[in-house]
Amino acid sequence: QTMPVLLLLSFCGDQPSPHSLHLIHGKGLFAKRSIKKGETIFVERPLVAAQFLWNFLYKYKACDFCLRALETAEENARRLSGIPGLSLPHPELCRVRPELHQACPQCQVMYCSSECRQAAADQYHRALCLGPSQEDPDHPINKLKDAWRSMHYPPETSSIMLMARMVAVVKQAKDKAHWQKLFSHFCSRTANEEEEIAHKLLGEQFRGQLALLHSLFTAALYDDHLSRWFVPEGFRSLFALVGTNGQGIGTSSLSQWVHACDALELPAHQREHLDSFIDQLYKDIEKETGDFLNCEGSGLFLLQSSCNHSCIPNAEASFPDNNFLLHLGALSDIAPGEEICISYLDCCQRDRSRHSRHKILRENYLFVCSCPKCASQTDELDVTSEEEEEEEGEAEGETEGDELEDEMTDV
Predict the structure, then answer these.
(1) What is the CB neighbour count within 10 angstroms for residue 126?
(2) Is there a contact between 217 and 163 (Cβ–Cβ < 8 Å)?
(3) Which pLDDT score is estimated for 314?
(4) Are residues 310 and 344 in the same domain?
(5) Residue 369's pLDDT is what?
(6) What is the pLDDT of residue 365?
(7) 280 lies in a domain?
(8) Cβ(111)–Cβ(64) below 8 Å
(9) What pLDDT does residue 345 have?
(10) pLDDT at position 36, please?
């Protein structure tokens, strides 16, 4: 349950260059050697990470530092299925160790281990700890959280607290310039002037919401060393940085238990009985909870953020350790010199029309995709896919305020 002692990557200086990778600043990540399908290309720890605010409010319990799920698999299954007396077979396969969990003595925020509690205190938590004001709605940080939740409903894709932790890290750091330099490696432009594209959340229609967040953010976190982040344009850049570079993180003790069950060597009748139990459990969870199964948050990963997008990616990120450690795995064989590309779109979005994909990428990531898939579809008509037409049809029936509120959720 403790943080790994050895990582393949650790950001203690400038951007790293592992033996199998070649990093060209601002251009992408390329393989130095052959990488086989299924191979882990690298493992990376984020500079900062934070659980989503609605996810926390709905009692998805995660370590405040590494986002490891804190519920046992059985507790998780009971809550998600709404069956309080549910018992899981093979409970020994659950890796959660409640006896190792520790709380911050001042604010009672929970951690999966003493190592994570200490790491959080050393990196950012001293600057953000609310102490006895943890539940005080009038505390400036709680007012900032409430304002964010009122603008950003599930499914969540980002958090204002990722920005808050960036500020807190610099506040607590002895070498403030070092951390500011690390954060400066992330793209934070608010527009792509060459393509005349502006980030969708920084337009005129969101001016009031951004102004409120800026005011609350400044009241809660202002620091003289970071004054450029607190002026209006600097705040917009910080907002764009998190929206453009934040990588979603999902952890689940139940999912880990299921994977461990799948790996068991069992007689045929026992395997059939266990698979049937798990299938029914997921049906019960879908009926009770829907698609929201994981502890969810986002983080800023220096190396992963250097990967460019492709609509037919050759690599993808996953979180098999049930914490914030990102594993980038190869989806296909990658030759020396070949660019390593991930997809900024989810599976459903990648199946949409070229026009629909371009719309999402322009508005959220400020570029026009020219990957092989898009290049092969240049003759397609500029019409949206059926899925997007359905969404737009639903939106037409909403009020203008509702439309803006819904758009604000899609960072």
Answers:
(1) 14
(2) yes
(3) 94
(4) yes
(5) 87
(6) 73
(7) no
(8) yes
(9) 80
(10) 96
Is residue 391 in a domain? no
Q: How far apart are CA 244 and CA 381, in angstroms?
A: 28
Cis preceding linkage at 155, omega within 30: yes
Give me the sheet containing 40-44, strands edge to edge.
40-44, 326-330, 315-318
Question: Taking the model in full, what pTM does it have?
Answer: 0.82
- Averaged pLDDT in 10-residue chunks for the chain of 411 residues: 30 42 63 94 97 95 98 97 96 96 97 98 98 96 96 86 97 95 79 52 71 96 94 89 90 96 96 97 94 92 90 93 96 94 82 84 77 83 56 44 38 36
| 105 located within any domain | yes
Residue 234 gets which letter from DSSP? H
Pair 332, 347 in one domain: yes
Element (DSSP H or E) covering residue 331: none
Give the distance between the most distant pair of CA atoms in the chain: 66
**Cβ(74)–Cβ(86) below 8 Å:** yes
Flag whether 394 is in a domain: no
Q: Does one domain contain both 189 and 61?
A: yes
Rounded distance, CA 118 to CA 130, Å? 17
Domain range for 108 is 49-247
Residue 34 host element (H or E): none
CA distance 207 to 213: 10
Instruction: Kindly report the length of the chain.
Output: 411
Q: Quick check: helix, strand or coil at residue 397? A: coil
Structure tokens given for 54: 């609605």
Distances (CA, A) of 356 to 106, 200, 205, 291, 387: 48, 15, 22, 23, 9
Give yes or no: residues 105 and 29 share one domain.
Answer: no
Helix axes 160-172, 232-245, angle to 10 degrees: 110
Q: Are 197 and 366 in contact (CB under 8 A)?
A: yes
